[in-house]
Amino acid sequence: MISNPFSKLLQSNQIRNSSYLYLDLSQIQICDHNSVQLVQALVAAKSLYDLNLKFSLNNKISLQGAQNIFTGLLNCQNLSKLSIDLKNQNIDDKIAPILGNGLTLIQNLQFLNIDLRHNKITDQGVADLTHRFSCFCKLTGLVIDLSYNLLTDKGAFNLGQSLKSMLNLQKLTLYLQANQIGDLGVKNISEIIEFCKNLKNLTIILDRNLITQEGIYFLAQSLTQSSNLSNFTIYLQENKLDSTCISDLSDGLAKCFNLSNLGVYLNFNDITNEGAICLARSILQIKNLKSLELHLMFNQIQKLGLSELGQCLRQLNYLIRLDFSINKISSYHTQTFKRNVKKMKRLTDCKIETD
Asked: Could you name the Gene Ontology cellular component terms for this entry (predicted)?
C-alpha cells in the first residue's frame, strides 16, 4: 500500500481553516499518484487565500502530475495570491501550456509568482505558457522567472505580446537572465511599459544576454512613455554595453519624471568615463527621486569619470547604495572619492575597491 504523504495535513484543521498555506514539498517525491493526494489536500482548503507551493530538484513534474495539481488549484475558489516554485523541474514545451491554461483558470488571482528558472522552455513554450494571460482580469501583480531557459528574441516577442494585454498590471518583475535575448527581444519587452499604463513598479533582469545599443535605445524610448512608473530597477550586467549604450539609457531615464525609486545594475560591461558621466547627469534630472542604487563594478571608468560622477552624486541626498569596484582607478583616487560620498547622510552601502 502506498502511503499518503499528505495524510497528516488532511487530518488537521490547518488545511481547512487556513487563509495562508506554505507547502514545502522538497522532501516529498511527487509522482502522478501522490499529486492526486496533493489535489485532495488543496480541495479541502476552502478558506485558502494565499498559497505558496515549493517543489524541489527531486520533484520532476510530469504532464499528468501538472494536470492533477491544477485541478486541485481550481477548487481553491478564494485563492487570490499564488507563489509556485518549479525551478529545475525539466519543464519543457509539452508541460508549459498545461501550466499556462491551468493558471488562467484561477479566476480570482490578484498576485502570481511563478519560478521557472533552469528548465527547458523554448520560444514556443513561452507562447503557450502566457498566451491566455489576458484572462487574468483581476491580476495586478506578476513575478515570472524564466532565467536559464532557451529563449531568443522570438520568445521575448511572445512574452511581450502576452503581457501587453494585461492592462491592470501595477507591479511586474521579469527574470530573463542567461538566455539568448537580443535587441529585438528587448524592444518587445520594453513595449510592455507603453501598453500597461497602470504599471507603477517594474523590475527587468536581462543579465547575460545579447543586448547592444539598439536594444538599449528601444528600452530608453519606452521609458519616455512611462507616465505612472514610480519604481524601476533594471539589470543589464554582462552584456558588453559601452558608453554609447549608456548615453541612450540615460536619455530615457532623465524623462522618467515620476520615478521615486531607481536601481541600475551595469556591472561587467565596457562603460567608460563618458557613460558614467551621462548616467549621473541624467539621474540629477529626475526631480522626484527618493532612492537610488547604482552598480558599476568591473567597467572601464577612470579618474576623470570618477571625479565627475562624484560631483554629481554629492548633489543627491538619496543615494542608498553604490558599487564602483574594480574599475581603472588608482587606490588614491578611489579613497578620495569614497571619503566624499560617505558624507552623504542616507548612504547605507558603498563599495569602491581596486583590483
From this structure: cytosol; nucleus; perinuclear region of cytoplasm
